[in-house]
Please model this.
Amino acid sequence: MESNTDSAPEEENTSTPNLEPRLDSVCREPASTLHEAACLHQDGVGYPAVSPEREAAVAAPAPGLEEDQAPQARRGLPPPVPPKVPSLDELSNDDFVPSELPAVVLSSQQEPEGVMSLSAIRTLVVQRRIHTALKHLTDLSNFEDKAEARLLRLRCLVAMRRYAEAAEECKQMGSEAASFEVRFFLAQLPWLLHADAYQSMLQLKALAQSWSSKGGESWEDRLELLQVLSHLSLAVGHGRMAAAELQRAVSEATDSAGRQLWSLLGRHHLSGGNLTAADAAFEKAKTYTGQDATVLLNSGFRAMAMGEFQAARDAFETAAADDTEGARLQEILAAENNLAVCKFYTKDLRGACERLKALVTKDPVRFLKPCLLQNLTSLYEFSQDAAGLRKALRDLAGAAQLEDLEPRLFQAPT
Model:
Protein backbone atom coordinates (compact mmCIF):
# COMPACT_ATOMS: atom_id res chain seq x y z
CA MET A 1 0.00 0.00 0.00
CA GLU A 2 1.46 3.36 -1.00
CA SER A 3 1.78 6.08 1.61
CA ASN A 4 0.46 9.50 0.74
CA THR A 5 2.88 11.19 3.10
CA ASP A 6 4.50 14.45 2.01
CA SER A 7 7.71 16.02 3.02
CA ALA A 8 5.80 18.25 5.44
CA PRO A 9 2.63 17.83 7.52
CA GLU A 10 -0.75 18.30 5.84
CA GLU A 11 -2.27 21.73 6.42
CA GLU A 12 -5.48 20.31 7.82
CA ASN A 13 -3.55 18.23 10.35
CA THR A 14 -1.06 20.50 12.07
CA SER A 15 -0.78 18.74 15.40
CA THR A 16 2.60 17.22 16.16
CA PRO A 17 2.45 13.42 16.56
CA ASN A 18 3.61 11.83 19.77
CA LEU A 19 7.18 11.41 18.54
CA GLU A 20 9.56 11.51 21.45
CA PRO A 21 13.18 11.96 20.39
CA ARG A 22 14.43 8.82 22.08
CA LEU A 23 18.09 8.33 22.90
CA ASP A 24 17.81 4.65 23.59
CA SER A 25 17.83 1.56 21.64
CA VAL A 26 16.27 0.89 21.18
CA CYS A 27 13.99 3.41 22.37
CA ARG A 28 14.52 1.04 25.18
CA GLU A 29 12.04 0.75 28.00
CA PRO A 30 12.63 -0.85 31.39
CA ALA A 31 12.02 -4.54 31.27
CA SER A 32 13.25 -7.91 32.32
CA THR A 33 16.32 -9.58 30.89
CA LEU A 34 14.32 -12.57 29.75
CA HIS A 35 16.62 -13.24 26.87
CA GLU A 36 14.44 -15.31 24.59
CA ALA A 37 11.38 -13.20 25.07
CA ALA A 38 10.46 -10.72 22.47
CA CYS A 39 13.17 -6.89 22.45
CA LEU A 40 15.37 -3.50 26.48
CA HIS A 41 16.83 -1.33 26.95
CA GLN A 42 16.32 -0.18 24.95
CA ASP A 43 15.49 -0.19 25.00
CA GLY A 44 14.89 1.11 27.37
CA VAL A 45 16.91 3.83 29.27
CA GLY A 46 15.80 7.43 29.54
CA TYR A 47 17.99 9.50 27.30
CA PRO A 48 17.59 13.22 26.75
CA ALA A 49 14.47 14.29 24.97
CA VAL A 50 14.53 17.41 22.86
CA SER A 51 13.75 20.45 24.97
CA PRO A 52 10.16 21.66 24.82
CA GLU A 53 11.62 25.16 24.36
CA ARG A 54 13.33 24.17 21.15
CA GLU A 55 11.43 25.07 18.00
CA ALA A 56 9.26 22.27 16.61
CA ALA A 57 10.42 19.85 19.29
CA VAL A 58 7.61 19.35 21.76
CA ALA A 59 7.95 16.15 23.78
CA ALA A 60 4.84 14.95 25.60
CA PRO A 61 4.92 12.73 28.71
CA ALA A 62 5.29 9.11 27.76
CA PRO A 63 2.14 7.01 27.40
CA GLY A 64 1.08 5.42 30.64
CA LEU A 65 2.19 8.34 32.84
CA GLU A 66 0.16 11.26 34.08
CA GLU A 67 1.56 14.72 33.48
CA ASP A 68 2.39 15.20 37.13
CA GLN A 69 4.65 12.14 37.02
CA ALA A 70 6.96 13.62 34.38
CA PRO A 71 10.30 14.84 35.72
CA GLN A 72 10.54 18.59 36.24
CA ALA A 73 12.42 20.50 33.54
CA ARG A 74 15.84 21.73 34.57
CA ARG A 75 18.10 24.45 33.25
CA GLY A 76 20.72 23.42 30.73
CA LEU A 77 20.21 20.25 28.69
CA PRO A 78 16.70 18.85 28.24
CA PRO A 79 15.28 16.52 30.90
CA PRO A 80 15.31 12.76 30.36
CA VAL A 81 12.40 11.04 28.65
CA PRO A 82 9.97 9.80 31.33
CA PRO A 83 9.69 6.01 31.46
CA LYS A 84 6.71 4.39 29.80
CA VAL A 85 4.87 1.32 31.01
CA PRO A 86 7.56 -1.31 30.56
CA SER A 87 7.67 -3.47 27.48
CA LEU A 88 9.95 -6.46 27.18
CA ASP A 89 10.72 -6.07 23.55
CA GLU A 90 13.07 -3.17 24.14
CA LEU A 91 15.55 -4.47 26.64
CA SER A 92 16.18 -7.93 25.24
CA ASN A 93 19.74 -8.75 24.41
CA ASP A 94 18.72 -11.71 22.29
CA ASP A 95 20.65 -10.94 19.13
CA PHE A 96 20.10 -14.40 17.71
CA VAL A 97 16.65 -13.75 16.31
CA PRO A 98 16.67 -15.23 12.79
CA SER A 99 16.92 -12.63 10.05
CA GLU A 100 14.25 -14.43 8.05
CA LEU A 101 11.08 -16.23 8.97
CA PRO A 102 11.30 -20.02 8.66
CA ALA A 103 10.25 -21.42 5.32
CA VAL A 104 7.27 -23.12 6.93
CA VAL A 105 5.48 -21.55 9.89
CA LEU A 106 2.86 -23.76 11.46
CA SER A 107 -0.49 -22.09 12.00
CA SER A 108 -2.53 -22.82 15.10
CA GLN A 109 -4.66 -25.19 13.01
CA GLN A 110 -1.58 -27.08 11.79
CA GLU A 111 0.17 -27.50 15.11
CA PRO A 112 0.71 -31.15 15.96
CA GLU A 113 -1.20 -32.69 18.80
CA GLY A 114 0.59 -34.08 21.81
CA VAL A 115 3.51 -32.79 23.83
CA MET A 116 5.90 -30.39 22.13
CA SER A 117 9.58 -30.57 23.02
CA LEU A 118 11.20 -27.75 24.97
CA SER A 119 13.49 -27.14 22.02
CA ALA A 120 10.49 -26.55 19.76
CA ILE A 121 8.90 -24.29 22.37
CA ARG A 122 12.08 -22.23 22.59
CA THR A 123 11.88 -21.78 18.83
CA LEU A 124 8.32 -20.50 19.18
CA VAL A 125 9.49 -17.95 21.75
CA VAL A 126 12.31 -16.76 19.46
CA GLN A 127 9.74 -16.43 16.67
CA ARG A 128 7.66 -14.31 19.11
CA ARG A 129 4.77 -16.78 19.05
CA ILE A 130 4.27 -16.30 22.76
CA HIS A 131 0.63 -17.36 23.12
CA THR A 132 1.28 -20.57 21.22
CA ALA A 133 4.33 -21.37 23.30
CA LEU A 134 2.46 -20.75 26.55
CA LYS A 135 -0.33 -23.09 25.47
CA HIS A 136 2.19 -25.91 25.21
CA LEU A 137 3.54 -25.14 28.69
CA THR A 138 0.23 -25.48 30.51
CA ASP A 139 1.07 -28.86 32.07
CA LEU A 140 4.65 -28.92 33.34
CA SER A 141 4.38 -32.59 34.25
CA ASN A 142 4.85 -33.34 30.56
CA PHE A 143 8.47 -32.24 30.71
CA GLU A 144 11.45 -33.92 32.28
CA ASP A 145 13.28 -30.63 32.77
CA LYS A 146 10.61 -28.81 34.74
CA ALA A 147 12.97 -25.99 35.76
CA GLU A 148 13.59 -25.00 32.15
CA ALA A 149 9.90 -25.37 31.31
CA ARG A 150 8.99 -23.05 34.18
CA LEU A 151 11.52 -20.45 33.04
CA LEU A 152 10.09 -20.59 29.54
CA ARG A 153 6.61 -20.12 30.95
CA LEU A 154 7.84 -17.14 32.97
CA ARG A 155 9.29 -15.56 29.83
CA CYS A 156 6.01 -16.00 28.00
CA LEU A 157 3.98 -14.43 30.82
CA VAL A 158 6.30 -11.44 31.04
CA ALA A 159 6.30 -11.00 27.26
CA MET A 160 2.50 -10.92 27.44
CA ARG A 161 2.73 -8.35 30.27
CA ARG A 162 0.92 -10.66 32.69
CA TYR A 163 3.22 -9.58 35.47
CA ALA A 164 1.11 -10.71 38.44
CA GLU A 165 0.93 -14.24 37.06
CA ALA A 166 4.66 -14.14 36.34
CA ALA A 167 5.31 -13.20 39.97
CA GLU A 168 3.23 -16.18 41.11
CA GLU A 169 5.24 -18.38 38.77
CA CYS A 170 8.42 -17.27 40.51
CA LYS A 171 7.02 -18.42 43.85
CA GLN A 172 6.72 -21.95 42.47
CA MET A 173 10.34 -22.11 41.39
CA GLY A 174 13.12 -24.06 43.00
CA SER A 175 16.79 -23.51 42.34
CA GLU A 176 16.03 -21.64 39.12
CA ALA A 177 14.70 -18.74 41.23
CA ALA A 178 18.32 -17.84 41.98
CA SER A 179 19.08 -17.18 38.32
CA PHE A 180 19.89 -13.64 37.25
CA GLU A 181 16.89 -13.27 34.95
CA VAL A 182 14.45 -14.18 37.73
CA ARG A 183 16.08 -11.85 40.25
CA PHE A 184 16.18 -9.09 37.63
CA PHE A 185 12.49 -9.51 36.88
CA LEU A 186 11.53 -9.48 40.57
CA ALA A 187 13.61 -6.34 41.17
CA GLN A 188 11.56 -4.57 38.51
CA LEU A 189 8.22 -5.90 39.72
CA PRO A 190 7.22 -2.81 41.77
CA TRP A 191 7.59 -0.73 38.60
CA LEU A 192 5.95 -3.28 36.32
CA LEU A 193 2.92 -3.73 38.57
CA HIS A 194 2.51 -0.38 40.28
CA ALA A 195 4.77 2.10 38.42
CA ASP A 196 6.78 2.37 41.64
CA ALA A 197 10.06 3.41 40.04
CA TYR A 198 11.70 4.33 43.34
CA GLN A 199 11.30 0.90 44.94
CA SER A 200 12.48 -0.84 41.80
CA MET A 201 15.47 1.48 41.66
CA LEU A 202 16.50 0.45 45.18
CA GLN A 203 16.15 -3.24 44.37
CA LEU A 204 18.08 -2.88 41.13
CA LYS A 205 20.84 -1.01 42.99
CA ALA A 206 21.09 -3.89 45.48
CA LEU A 207 21.27 -6.38 42.61
CA ALA A 208 23.99 -4.33 40.93
CA GLN A 209 26.01 -4.12 44.15
CA SER A 210 25.82 -7.89 44.59
CA TRP A 211 27.18 -8.45 41.09
CA SER A 212 29.87 -11.06 40.78
CA SER A 213 31.60 -11.90 37.52
CA LYS A 214 32.02 -15.43 38.91
CA GLY A 215 28.28 -15.98 39.07
CA GLY A 216 27.95 -17.02 35.46
CA GLU A 217 26.24 -13.81 34.30
CA SER A 218 27.54 -12.10 31.19
CA TRP A 219 28.55 -8.49 30.65
CA GLU A 220 25.44 -8.20 28.52
CA ASP A 221 23.40 -9.03 31.64
CA ARG A 222 25.23 -6.41 33.64
CA LEU A 223 24.83 -3.81 30.90
CA GLU A 224 21.09 -4.45 30.75
CA LEU A 225 20.77 -4.17 34.52
CA LEU A 226 22.64 -0.86 34.54
CA GLN A 227 20.56 0.49 31.66
CA VAL A 228 17.34 -0.03 33.58
CA LEU A 229 18.88 1.32 36.77
CA SER A 230 20.00 4.44 34.87
CA HIS A 231 16.55 4.92 33.40
CA LEU A 232 14.65 4.61 36.67
CA SER A 233 17.12 6.63 38.73
CA LEU A 234 16.81 9.56 36.35
CA ALA A 235 13.03 9.24 36.37
CA VAL A 236 12.87 9.63 40.16
CA GLY A 237 15.59 12.27 40.41
CA HIS A 238 18.37 10.10 41.86
CA GLY A 239 20.70 9.95 38.89
CA ARG A 240 23.81 10.00 41.09
CA MET A 241 22.90 6.61 42.48
CA ALA A 242 23.09 4.96 39.08
CA ALA A 243 26.16 7.02 38.14
CA ALA A 244 28.04 5.52 41.11
CA GLU A 245 27.19 1.97 40.00
CA LEU A 246 28.17 2.78 36.43
CA GLN A 247 31.52 4.15 37.63
CA ARG A 248 32.14 0.93 39.54
CA ALA A 249 31.27 -1.15 36.48
CA VAL A 250 33.59 0.75 34.13
CA SER A 251 36.44 0.35 36.60
CA GLU A 252 35.99 -3.43 36.28
CA ALA A 253 35.31 -3.46 32.55
CA THR A 254 37.09 -5.75 30.15
CA ASP A 255 38.16 -4.61 26.71
CA SER A 256 35.08 -6.19 25.14
CA ALA A 257 32.66 -4.43 27.50
CA GLY A 258 34.47 -1.13 28.01
CA ARG A 259 33.05 0.71 25.01
CA GLN A 260 29.47 -0.21 25.89
CA LEU A 261 29.78 0.64 29.58
CA TRP A 262 31.54 3.98 29.05
CA SER A 263 28.94 4.85 26.42
CA LEU A 264 26.14 4.07 28.86
CA LEU A 265 27.80 6.26 31.50
CA GLY A 266 28.08 9.10 28.98
CA ARG A 267 24.44 8.77 27.97
CA HIS A 268 23.43 8.74 31.62
CA HIS A 269 25.30 12.02 32.22
CA LEU A 270 23.82 13.47 29.04
CA SER A 271 20.34 12.66 30.31
CA GLY A 272 21.09 14.38 33.58
CA GLY A 273 22.33 17.53 31.85
CA ASN A 274 26.03 17.08 32.66
CA LEU A 275 27.52 17.72 29.22
CA THR A 276 31.12 17.88 30.45
CA ALA A 277 30.95 14.47 32.13
CA ALA A 278 29.12 13.02 29.13
CA ASP A 279 31.81 14.20 26.71
CA ALA A 280 34.55 12.77 28.93
CA ALA A 281 32.85 9.37 29.05
CA PHE A 282 32.23 9.37 25.29
CA GLU A 283 35.92 10.10 24.68
CA LYS A 284 36.87 7.24 27.00
CA ALA A 285 34.58 4.90 25.05
CA LYS A 286 36.54 5.64 21.88
CA THR A 287 39.71 4.20 23.44
CA TYR A 288 38.19 0.70 23.61
CA THR A 289 37.70 -1.70 20.75
CA GLY A 290 34.19 -2.52 19.62
CA GLN A 291 31.52 -1.66 17.11
CA ASP A 292 31.88 1.77 15.51
CA ALA A 293 28.08 2.07 15.62
CA THR A 294 28.29 2.60 19.38
CA VAL A 295 30.46 5.71 19.01
CA LEU A 296 28.27 6.99 16.17
CA LEU A 297 25.19 6.60 18.36
CA ASN A 298 26.89 8.59 21.10
CA SER A 299 27.51 11.42 18.62
CA GLY A 300 23.91 11.26 17.42
CA PHE A 301 22.51 11.34 20.94
CA ARG A 302 24.63 14.34 21.84
CA ALA A 303 23.64 16.23 18.70
CA MET A 304 19.97 15.42 19.23
CA ALA A 305 20.12 16.62 22.82
CA MET A 306 21.50 19.93 21.56
CA GLY A 307 18.77 20.22 18.93
CA GLU A 308 21.20 19.67 16.04
CA PHE A 309 18.94 17.31 14.12
CA GLN A 310 20.82 17.32 10.80
CA ALA A 311 24.09 16.34 12.48
CA ALA A 312 22.25 13.71 14.54
CA ARG A 313 20.59 12.41 11.37
CA ASP A 314 23.97 11.93 9.67
CA ALA A 315 25.37 10.04 12.67
CA PHE A 316 22.34 7.76 13.02
CA GLU A 317 22.26 7.03 9.29
CA THR A 318 25.88 5.88 9.35
CA ALA A 319 25.30 3.82 12.49
CA ALA A 320 22.21 2.18 10.98
CA ALA A 321 24.23 1.04 7.98
CA ASP A 322 26.24 -1.28 10.26
CA ASP A 323 23.82 -4.20 9.96
CA THR A 324 26.63 -6.73 10.02
CA GLU A 325 26.53 -10.08 11.76
CA GLY A 326 28.34 -8.66 14.78
CA ALA A 327 26.14 -5.59 15.12
CA ARG A 328 23.96 -5.49 18.22
CA LEU A 329 20.28 -5.58 17.38
CA GLN A 330 19.58 -3.00 20.05
CA GLU A 331 21.90 -0.47 18.43
CA ILE A 332 20.41 -1.01 14.98
CA LEU A 333 16.95 -0.36 16.41
CA ALA A 334 18.19 2.74 18.25
CA ALA A 335 19.81 4.13 15.12
CA GLU A 336 16.79 3.50 12.88
CA ASN A 337 14.22 4.83 15.33
CA ASN A 338 16.14 8.00 16.14
CA LEU A 339 16.97 8.49 12.47
CA ALA A 340 13.25 8.55 11.68
CA VAL A 341 12.67 11.18 14.38
CA CYS A 342 15.50 13.33 13.00
CA LYS A 343 14.13 13.01 9.47
CA PHE A 344 10.78 14.24 10.73
CA TYR A 345 12.32 17.31 12.35
CA THR A 346 14.39 18.04 9.22
CA LYS A 347 11.21 18.06 7.11
CA ASP A 348 11.66 14.65 5.48
CA LEU A 349 8.45 12.99 6.58
CA ARG A 350 8.22 10.79 3.51
CA GLY A 351 11.76 9.53 3.99
CA ALA A 352 11.10 8.74 7.66
CA CYS A 353 7.98 6.72 6.81
CA GLU A 354 9.48 4.85 3.89
CA ARG A 355 12.65 3.84 5.74
CA LEU A 356 10.84 2.47 8.79
CA LYS A 357 8.27 0.73 6.60
CA ALA A 358 10.99 -0.94 4.51
CA LEU A 359 12.80 -2.05 7.67
CA VAL A 360 9.84 -3.73 9.36
CA THR A 361 8.64 -5.27 6.09
CA LYS A 362 12.07 -6.78 5.39
CA ASP A 363 12.18 -8.65 8.69
CA PRO A 364 9.13 -8.26 10.95
CA VAL A 365 10.36 -10.82 13.50
CA ARG A 366 13.51 -8.83 14.06
CA PHE A 367 12.38 -5.26 13.56
CA LEU A 368 8.62 -4.92 14.09
CA LYS A 369 9.06 -3.91 17.72
CA PRO A 370 6.78 -1.63 19.76
CA CYS A 371 9.32 1.24 19.74
CA LEU A 372 9.46 1.34 15.92
CA LEU A 373 5.79 0.55 15.53
CA GLN A 374 4.74 3.43 17.79
CA ASN A 375 6.77 6.00 15.88
CA LEU A 376 5.69 4.67 12.50
CA THR A 377 1.99 4.84 13.36
CA SER A 378 2.54 8.37 14.69
CA LEU A 379 4.20 9.39 11.43
CA TYR A 380 1.33 7.84 9.48
CA GLU A 381 -1.06 10.30 11.15
CA PHE A 382 0.11 12.89 8.62
CA SER A 383 -1.08 10.66 5.77
CA GLN A 384 -4.53 10.84 4.20
CA ASP A 385 -4.77 7.04 4.53
CA ALA A 386 -3.48 6.63 8.08
CA ALA A 387 -6.08 3.98 8.94
CA GLY A 388 -5.18 1.92 5.88
CA LEU A 389 -1.47 2.14 6.60
CA ARG A 390 -2.00 1.02 10.20
CA LYS A 391 -4.07 -1.90 8.95
CA ALA A 392 -1.22 -2.90 6.64
CA LEU A 393 1.09 -3.04 9.66
CA ARG A 394 -1.45 -5.12 11.56
CA ASP A 395 -1.71 -7.50 8.62
CA LEU A 396 2.08 -7.76 8.46
CA ALA A 397 2.24 -8.70 12.14
CA GLY A 398 -0.49 -11.27 11.60
CA ALA A 399 1.27 -12.83 8.61
CA ALA A 400 4.48 -13.12 10.66
CA GLN A 401 2.41 -14.57 13.55
CA LEU A 402 3.81 -12.09 16.06
CA GLU A 403 1.91 -12.64 19.28
CA ASP A 404 3.63 -10.12 21.56
CA LEU A 405 2.28 -6.84 20.12
CA GLU A 406 -0.56 -5.15 21.98
CA PRO A 407 -3.58 -4.16 19.84
CA ARG A 408 -3.32 -0.53 21.02
CA LEU A 409 -0.04 -0.20 19.10
CA PHE A 410 -1.98 -0.40 15.83
CA GLN A 411 -4.48 2.26 16.86
CA ALA A 412 -4.30 5.98 16.19
CA PRO A 413 -2.08 7.73 18.77
CA THR A 414 -4.04 9.64 21.38
Notes: Residues 37 and 111 are 21 Å apart (CA to CA).
